[in-house]
Structure formats: structure tokens, C-alpha cells
From TrEMBL:
<dbReference type="InterPro" id="IPR014710">
    <property type="entry name" value="RmlC-like_jellyroll"/>
</dbReference>
<dbReference type="InterPro" id="IPR047142">
    <property type="entry name" value="OryJ/VirC-like"/>
</dbReference>
<dbReference type="InterPro" id="IPR011051">
    <property type="entry name" value="RmlC_Cupin_sf"/>
</dbReference>
<protein>
    <recommendedName>
        <fullName>Cupin 2 conserved barrel domain-containing protein</fullName>
    </recommendedName>
</protein>
Length: 190
């Protein structure tokens, strides 16, 4: 695997420094720039990388420090909050088929990834999705994708790296009726 041609992203943080000086009614504003740490997502052979910008509860508390650590578990959904991160896909690579309990807003900065979703209804049995066809949607550079808790995978079918900025907002789980039971559509990785 060749080294990615994408530079490590930067985060410019502009914030108030509290408390405000006693002789003024506005606090000092501080603006800092930090190069974000890009990490390989475990188990994917360096083909999928992530740089977390921030995790925050919603509503946010601007009095506390900005949390730039990855979340536990999948590292994608921050409970009762939002996560912002960069997602890089190596040429000719893909993520596993998965679903998170979230609303995701993805903006394609570089390249043209393909969003892969199952066609029609299907079942998951013993950790394997039982579908036969997929819908493959090529997302051009500059486009925004809104995902609402659906099963999906990302593929890069090109010879160039793909970079997306992702904002993930925690959501209430969806439920389906199956065989007389109410089943939660929770987070799943296949």
C-alpha cells in the first residue's frame, strides 16, 4: 500500500478564554491550530484511516475543553452528542458493511467514493446479512450525503485516495416488527 497523498488535516480552534478580565465585559479570544493525528482503523490493513476533530455533548458546553479523543467501541457515535472526523479511504478499498444508531452528514473533499447499500429488505442471520443485490451510488467530490441509520459500506473504486469530513449525531434507535417481536436496529458490523 503506497503512502496516502492526503496531508494530515488541521483543526483551527477559536474560543473564549474565561473568566473575562474584571475591567472588561468580553473575554480574550484564543485561536490555535493543531495538526490532527491520523490513525488506521484497526482490522482494515491501513486502508481506512480516521482523524477525530472533536466529540461533544449536545447541547455543547463551551466552558469545558474540546474533546479530541476517539470514542470507545466503534469510535463513531458519541452518546447524546456529536463527533466530527475525517475519513480517508485508500485506492481500491472498502469499509465493512455496517450500521450506526446516528444521523451522519458526510462531505466529500477528495475523490469519488461509492456508497453501497442493500437492495430491498433482508435479514441478518449469525452476523451475516442475507441480501443478494446492492445499490451502488457514486458520490462526486463536493457532494453531501445524509445517512439515517441504514446499513451501508463505503468503497473507493478509484486509484486515488478519498477524503470525507463526517459529522455524526447520536440518534434514537429504530425498531422493526419481525415474527411477532419488536427488534431494535442497533449498531452492527458485518
Amino acid at each position: 500500500m503506497s503512502a496516502p497523498s492526503l496531508p494530515a488535516p488541521q483543526c483551527v480552534l477559536s474560543q473564549n478564554i474565561l473568566p473575562a478580565p474584571t475591567c472588561q465585559n468580553e473575554p480574550v479570544v484564543e485561536t490555535t491550530t493543531q495538526v490532527l493525528s491520523v490513525i488506521d482503523i484497526p482490522g482494515l490493513g491501513g486502508k481506512v484511516r480516521r482523524a477525530t476533530v472533536a466529540n461533544t455533548t449536545v447541547p455543547a458546553n463551551n466552558d469545558s475543553a474540546l474533546d479530541t479523543r476517539a470514542n470507545p467501541g466503534s469510535g463513531i457515535v458519541h452518546p447524546n452528542g456529536a463527533t466530527v472526523y475525517y475519513l480517508d479511504l485508500a485506492p481500491r478499498s472498502s469499509t465493512p458493511m455496517h450500521r450506526t444508531v446516528s444521523v451522519d452528514y458526510l462531505v466529500v473533499l477528495d475523490g469519488s467514493p461509492t456508497l453501497v447499500t442493500p437492495m430491498g429488505d433482508f435479514s441478518v442471520v449469525d452476523g451475516e446479512a442475507k441480501y443478494t443485490e446492492t445499490v451502488d451510488t457514486v458520490i462526486p467530490r463536493g457532494s453531501t450525503v445524509v445517512q439515517r441509520g441504514q446499513l451501508h459500506a463505503w468503497q473507493n473504486r478509484t486509484d486515488e485516495w478519498v477524503r470525507m469530513v463526517v459529522v455524526v449525531v447520536d440518534a434514537e434507535p429504530q425498531f422493526v416488527e419481525a415474527d411477532g417481536m419488536r427488534l431494535e436496529l442497533g449498531e452492527i458490523w458485518l
